[in-house]
Structure formats: C-alpha cells, structure tokens
User: Fold this.
Amino acid sequence: MRPLGLNAIFFTRCSPHKVGLVNDLELLYIRQNYPGSGYFHPSEDFIMTKRPFFTPATGLLLLIIGLTALVIKSAQDSLTQALLAALFFLLAAGYFTARSFEGEKRWWMILPAGLSFTVAAIVLLRHFALLKSHLLWALFFCGAGLTLFLYWKNRPHALPEKWARNGAILCALLALFQYLGSFRFMDHMTLVALLLFAAGILLLMRKR
Assistant:
C-alpha cells in the first residue's frame, strides 16, 4: 500500500468525485490513523451529496403554476387586469426565453418561458370569451406538454432526458383527459381507466 499524507486525506475529503482513487485498504488505514479526517465511503455518505430533485428551478415552475389560477380568476371581469396580467406573463416569457439561449446551463429556463406564455394566452382567450371554461386546463396542459417536448428535443446531451419526455407524455394525457371530459359522453372513472390502459400499453411496447 502506498503511503498517504495529509494532502491525500485532504484531497479525498474535499473531492468526493475523486473518491474512487482510494481503495479499501487505504480507507482502513485512514480511519485508523486519522480518525478526524472526515473521510467517507462512496456507498454511504457520498450518496447524500447528490443534487436534490427540488431545485430552485422546480420551485419557480410550481410558483408559475400556482399563480395561473389566481391570475385567471382575478382577470375575469376587468379588461385592465387581464391586459396587465397578460403583459406581465409575456414579459416573463420573453425574459426567460432570452436567458435560455445564453448557454447550455440556462436551457432549463425555456420551461418557465413556455408556461408563462401559455398563461398569458389563457388569460386573454378567457377574458374575450374565446376559450370555454372546461377547456382552460386542457390548453394549459397542452402548453406545458409542448414546452417539455421542446426542452427534451433541444436539450444538451449532458442533461437527463427521461423526466422531460415522461412529463410531456403525462401532460398530453392530462390534456386529452380534460378535452374528452368536456364532451360528457362517459364518466370520469371510465375515461381515467381507458387512459391508464393506453399508457400501460405504450410503456410495455416501448423499446428498452
């Protein structure tokens, strides 16, 4: 076993992505001779250093979705409120779109851009009676699904893909559910069962 100094201990402690350079015998040596080094094993504490799922980007998306219902409800009666709300979300969509083209690390901003544009369109269509109330959420899920699809198709290859693709499929199914539910030709439970059945078949037929 090669000798290890304080530099090696500091290196393994501060660089968890390099932890594979130290084998089990060296790990035992470090723990016995340098108990205060704080070294951790990759199968234990290193798992906890992974980036959490609930990032600020996720919080921003949830915030926009939550604001959707409030803005639409407050802008139903007043033309001024509807125009101001639509203008706000259009400006937000333009800002996020411009930032998303600054680099690969900012491509995720296309998600709030698409949602903001969808909300602006819903507010205007809803106020001018061009969108029926039962189709409101169908249009919202269509916009969200299209946004996720664009993110998935144009994402940098270094970014994960499955969550965006699956999210787009889920939004498409929800939009279809809202649209078919507006016809009232069958009860909601039957419609949900049919959509789940179709989704299960698609997942089983998908290439692994």
Observations:
- Residues 56-205 form one domain.
- The first helix runs from residue 6 to 14.
